[in-house]
Amino acid sequence: MSSPTIDFANAVAGVVPGTGIDPDRLHGDLAARFRDAHAAVTARRRAGEMGFFALPADRDLTVRTGAVAATVAPRFESLVVIGIGGSALGTAALRDALLPPAWNELDAASRGGRPRLHLMDNPDPDSVAALLGRLNPARTCFNVVSKSGSTAETMAHLLVAWTWVESSLGPGGPRERFVVTTSPGRGPLRKLAEDHGLLALDVPDAVGGRFSVLSPAALFPAAVTGIDTGAVLAGAAEAAARCSTPELLRNSAGVLATLLHVADTEMGCPVHVFMPYADRLRGLAYWIQQLWAESLGKAVDREGRPVESGPTPLPSFGAADQHSVLQLLMEGPRDKIVVFLGREVPERDVGIPERFAEEPALACLGGHTLFDLLDAERRATAEAMRREGRPNLTVMTERLDAHAVGSLLMLFQIAVVYAGELYGVNPLDQPGVELGKKLTFGLMGRDGYPRPEAPRSDSRWRV
Amino acid sequence: MSSPTIDFANAVAGVVPGTGIDPDRLHGDLAARFRDAHAAVTARRRAGEMGFFALPADRDLTVRTGAVAATVAPRFESLVVIGIGGSALGTAALRDALLPPAWNELDAASRGGRPRLHLMDNPDPDSVAALLGRLNPARTCFNVVSKSGSTAETMAHLLVAWTWVESSLGPGGPRERFVVTTSPGRGPLRKLAEDHGLLALDVPDAVGGRFSVLSPAALFPAAVTGIDTGAVLAGAAEAAARCSTPELLRNSAGVLATLLHVADTEMGCPVHVFMPYADRLRGLAYWIQQLWAESLGKAVDREGRPVESGPTPLPSFGAADQHSVLQLLMEGPRDKIVVFLGREVPERDVGIPERFAEEPALACLGGHTLFDLLDAERRATAEAMRREGRPNLTVMTERLDAHAVGSLLMLFQIAVVYAGELYGVNPLDQPGVELGKKLTFGLMGRDGYPRPEAPRSDSRWRV
After folding, report:
1. I want to staple B394 with a disulfide (CB 3.0 to 4.6 A). Which of A103, A279, B158, B340 is the partner?
2. How big is the CA angle at A290 (ends A332 and B281), to the nearest 5 degrees?
3. Residue A453: is its pLDDT beyond 80?
């Protein structure tokens, strides 16, 4: 049960030609800078600002989540999570990593009698109509997840799903089939739960949407589908403990934050490519993308001074994207640093048979396994990038079990709040999305929100 | 049957505050520059370099593809496409756009008796073992797609699948169940097809992998699953005709290429965000990402001079990613231009019922539709970005039918070869991926490929 390790040799000057971090700085100014960032995070954490740290030890929350999951799991053949952004990406990360692939295509026995898991995130009528069209209302549970309890897309989906259940099963139908996950004690969703006697779970006040993966926001759907949420939390707790030291070179979250901050601000690498070599880490990569983009993409710093900061997180997937973005990573502008994610040992493997060995392109494959090939490609790509002077790091876990996935989730959350301090910004807010929300409400005719005057459509600028 | 239009008002100086293209240049230097690019593309096309232009009119290829698809479709319950990169992304783009959502979760009747469609692209043992575990070998067809006929991942999957079929059905099993799509007349895959009497389809020599979506590489799986490939090709042909003029402001591919090239090279916007507001365009966005990254990410120009060029294509998905990357797009560094993709009219829509209207957050939703909300979010986001001085364009189609999807595919292919001329690079090669391939072969022990000496693992640089 080891936590993830970070190998950053390929980002060190002298190893990666023409660029890289002077390793002495890791004992010098960067160590000092991290010590300050660590102190600031520790202070904010003590002040109650960063609730995600406390989630693995929140026994009441965990017990309550498990109890509600236990009442729901046996009664339904489908669980639909209605949520978007931070209320969907954590669930998708856990689903991809820890449920068998194509879970929804398995029959009930192969799912151990657990429900299918669907996400209703985007308000796209094609997707929503198709989803409802293949669900049985009597056998479907809807979990409505919104920290604020008023997210427009989530509320729209709630109205659609509630009425869909009611029209089939009558006015008592929804009460048995809707579970809400929202702030304790306030918001429209909380009120709806109280008015209708719905099962309800809490996202603690100090836990923001994109830091809610270890709260009921994602752990409830995980528990319903049979994921070992206890092991996820244990892995997270272990990573938090290992990432609690102010000593840079003993703190993997600190090293990750420091190296990526230096890459952006000193090495000319604002593009951070997160590139797992494991299909099961697809959801994690998109979850990291949100965590990085919303936490670090800020107009102003903590003192309100304009900074317009933030690296661009680019999820990419090995080995497949060696046939897509790798050409750009190898030969294009030197504005990127790659964070590879790999594992030492696969949970299962597939042998490549020795056939058609008269073809050299096939002969070298037979007798190996698919993991041999996938892992050789990861190592070869990291080494090829190094030789071309393209800096990269590798985050490795021993296995990809629930404990390791919990560790990764906590590692990246801690890294991003350290990075927030290094950038000098508040990693917990997202003020930039408000204008678009207001303009949407205006276009939807909400009282008090004027319909935006857009520039008159001009045929000169259309082709 | 209209082709896509591009509205670029929000990238024009005077409309988007503080940045934008001087519109007079579209009649001046940029028009002249495009005229040269157009002439160069026309010359290369005539010289036979750019085979994708000719695919919509290649009647022999189309008839052959349809005939093979007709023999395959009724015999199988699953089609597995074994391919990676350009041999998978086009199929995924067509699947996402034109098959009903969650096609593989539908029963046979809802699929019109057509096969399920699976992609075996990444050599990840978790995915491959899970896929084979839920397939019936007798009722599964494998379509092995590789232009070169020697792609390592594809060859490994071929060996796995071939032996899996044989072990269940005997030595005659594979012959009836494998269809190959590869270069005519050469390569290990072609030889295998000839040796074993397999059905075979051609990717014409002048058609590169990432330009093969309108060839049998993607049209065969599309035809097997019942997509109207004739309409896709008709849409592509119409777009090609509309994008054939050297007059910049009448050529939508030219405008797209010119604006994005200027954004990268003159406006400080190397990050090109491709952001559809339609779940059905997810696959298209990843297909565009490959097209942009591999075609434009180049170390040297046509004359061999070092350039290290190429924008970073970042797929993003509205409205969901308004809760993920939008914060960065609105407030972070001004190094991005967004290409929104939308449509005028949805194929289907879902009404939002008027319920719980005492809550203001819900009252403004009822009586609208999900498409109203999705489309208001697209327009509001484009307008919010404009107000913040963040340039953006919008590619619109009237509908998202097979004709429109074909038009989009051709529009972006033509745009990228124009962009190649504007950057001065060869958009058809991908020399940067060779080193990683060689090192992989070395690690796999292939004769003649030395095992790479990586720097000795150094515990100082691991945490």
Report:
1. B340
2. 70
3. no
Q: Is B109 on the interface with A (CB under 8 A)?
A: no
Distance to chain B for A459, nearest Cα, Å: 8
Residues of B with Cβ-Cβ distance to A131 under 8 angstroms: 101-102
Range list of H helices, A87-204: 89-98, 125-133, 152-169, 188-196
DSSP of B420-452, one letter per residue?
HHHHTS-TT--GGGHHHHHHHHHHTT-TT-PPP
In this complex, is the C-beta atom of B348 within 8 Å of any C-beta atom belonging to chain A? yes
Q: Which pLDDT score, from 0 to 100, does residue B452 have? A: 84
Q: What's the rounded mean pLDDT across residues A72-76?
A: 97
In this structure, the strands spanning A140-145 and A78-82 are parallel
Q: Looking at chain B, which residue has its C-alpha nearest residue A97? A: B126
pLDDT surpassing 60 at residue A451:
yes
| A450 confidence band (pLDDT: 50, 70, 90) | confident
Residues forming a β-bridge with A273:
A314, A338
Report, as an integer, the average pLDDT of A273-293: 98
Residues 6+ apart with CB under 8 A from A79: A72, A115, A116, A117, A118, A140, A141, A142, A143, A221, A224, A225
Q: Cα–Cα distance between A17 and A14 in angstroms, integer?
A: 6
pLDDT band at B1 (very low <50, low <70, confident <90, very high): low
- A69 Cα to chain B: minimum distance (Å): 25
Q: Per-residue b/e over B221-244, b at no fewer than 16 CB within 10 Å? A: bbbbbbbbbbbbbbbbbbbbebbb
Confidence of residue A20 (pLDDT cuts 50, 70, 90): very high
- Pairing relationship of beta strands B336-343 and B271-276 according to DSSP bridges: parallel
In whole angstroms, what is the distance from residue B330 CA to residue B335 CA? 11
β-bridge mates for residue A144, sequence order: A82, A180
pLDDT tens-digit profile of A386-437? 999 999 999 999 999 999 999 999 999 999 999 999 999 999 999 999 999 9
Token duo for residue A204: 């603690």
* Strand ordering across the sheet containing A271-276: A5-7, A392-397, A336-343, A271-276, A312-315
Beta bridge partners of A271: A312, A336
| Token code pair at residue A208 | 């923001």
The closest alpha carbon to A143, from A111, A112, A121, belongs to: A121
pLDDT at residue A144 tops 80:
yes
State whether residue B247 sits within 8 Å of chain A by CB: no
* B47–chain A Cβ distance below 8 A for any pair: no
Alpha carbon distance A366, A370 (integer Å): 10
Considering the entire predicted model, what is its pTM? 0.98
CB B159 to CB A356 under 8 A? yes
- Residue range B202-210: mean pLDDT, rounded: 96
Q: Which pLDDT belongs to residue B453?
A: 76
Q: Which residue of B has its CA nearest to A134?
A: B106
CA of A222 vs chain B CAs: smallest distance (Å): 19
- A386 Cβ under 8 Å from any chain B Cβ: yes
How high is the pLDDT of residue A457? Answer: 73
Which of A5, A104, A124 is nearest residue B463 as measured by Cβ atoms? A5
Mean pLDDT of A211-224: 98
CA angle B430, B434, B438 (to 5 degrees): 165
User: B67: cis peptide before it, omega within 30°?
Assistant: no
Cβ B327–A430 below 8 Å, yes or no?
Answer: yes
φ and ψ of B209, to 5 deg: -50, -50
Q: Taking CA atoms, what residue in B is nearest to A286?
A: B324
Report d(CA A350, CA B238) in Å as an integer. 46
Chain B, 413-442: which have a CB under 8 Å from a chain A CB? 430-433, 435-442
> Can you tell me whether residue B227 is helix, strand or coil?
coil
**Contacting residues of B for A110, CB less than 8 Å apart:** 134
